[in-house]
Design a protein that fits this description.
With 223 residues, the protein is an alpha/beta fold. 28% of the residues lie in helices and 26% in strands. The chain contains 8 helices and 11 strands. Strand 6 and strand 7 form a beta hairpin. It binds iron/sulfur cluster (2 copies).
Length: 223
C-alpha cells in the first residue's frame, strides 16, 4: 500500500485562498488505512474548511482514488456541483490528485497529503517501506531482503565499510541490510548467492512515467 501523511492545515489554506466552493475527494483504500483520507478525515476536513468560511459542494469517498475511470464516472453524476466548484482538495496519494486533475481539467486540484512510500502493513497503523519500485527485482539473490530499500546507500554488492557491530553507520539503531542478507542466506543454505556480483542497475527499467497494459495471458510495458 501507499503511505501518506497530512499536510499542514496552513499549507492547505494557502492553496485554497480566494476559493470559496470546494469539492473534497477521499480514498477508501490506502489513505483510509493511513488515517489520512478516509471518511473520518473527509468529515474533519469539511468541518475545518466550513469554519474557514468555505462551502463544501460535495465530499466524495472513492473506493480507490487512483482508479481513474471510477472517479470520472462518479464526477459525471455530479455535473451540477462541479459547475460551482472553485477547487478540488484530494485526500489521497499523488496518484489520486493526478486522476482528479485529468477528470476535471478546468478546476484546480490540490493535494491535502504528502505521499511517502510503498509499504508493508506490519499491523494496523504501522507501516514500513517494503520496495523502492526499482523495476528489476533482485530479491532472488538477496534472500528476499531488498538492498535498495533497506540499505540507505542502496548498495547492490554490500556491505560497505561502515558496518558497526552489525548495525548501519547511517542509522546505528538499524541492522545493516547486508548483514541481514548474509544471515538470511546462511539460514536458508544459499550463501553461494553472495559469490554472484550483481551488475549495475539498469535505470532505463525505471523510466518515467511508467505505463503497463495487462490483459489475460498478456503483459505489455509501454513507455
Ligand atoms: S529489488 Fe527491491 S526495490 Fe527493486 S523491485 Fe525488488 S523489492 Fe522492489
Ligand atoms: S552499513 Fe550496511 S545498510 Fe548501512 S549503508 Fe553500509 S551496507 Fe548499507
Amino acid at each position: 500500500m501507499i503511505t501518506t501523511k497530512k499536510k499542514e492545515l496552513k499549507t492547505i489554506l494557502e492553496y485554497l485562498e480566494g476559493k470559496k466552493n470546494i469539492l473534497l475527494i477521499g480514498c477508501g483504500a490506502c489513505a483510509e488505512q493511513c488515517m489520512t483520507g478516509g471518511n473520518k478525515e473527509l468529515l474533519e476536513m469539511a468541518e475545518i474548511l466550513k469554519k474557514e468560511g468555505k462551502n463544501i459542494v460535495d465530499s466524495l469517498l472513492l473506493e480507490e482514488a487512483c482508479y481513474s475511470l471510477l472517479l470520472k464516472k462518479e464526477l459525471r453524476q455530479r455535473k451540477k456541483e462541479i459547475e460551482n466548484t472553485d477547487a478540488v482538495l484530494i485526500l489521497s496519494c499523488g496518484v489520486g490528485v493526478s486522476c482528479a486533475t485529468e477528470a476535471l481539467p478546468k478546476v484546480p486540484s490540490y493535494p491535502a497529503l504528502d505521499t511517502l512510500f510503498l509499504a508493508r502493513v506490519e499491523r494496523h497503523g504501522h507501516f514500513t517501506e517494503g520496495c523502492s519500485l526499482c523495476g528489476e527485482c533482485v530479491l532472488a539473490f538477496t534472500g528476499g531482503i531488498c538492498p535498495i530499500t533497506y540499505c540507505p546507500k542502496g548498495i547492490l554488492n554490500g556491505p560497505c565499510g561502515g558496518v558497526v557491530d552489525g548495525m548501519c553507520e547511517a542509522d546505528i539503531e538499524t541492522p545493516c541490510a547486508w548483514v541481514a542478507i548474509y544471515t538470511r542466506l546462511k539460514e536458508i543454505g544459499r550463501l553461494e548467492d553472495l559469490k554472484r556480483t550483481a551488475p549495475p542497475k539498469d535505470h532505463s527499467m525505471k523510466r518515467k512515467p511508467g505505463k503497463v497494459v495487462v490483459k489475460r495471458n498478456d503483459f505489455k510495458k509501454i513507455y
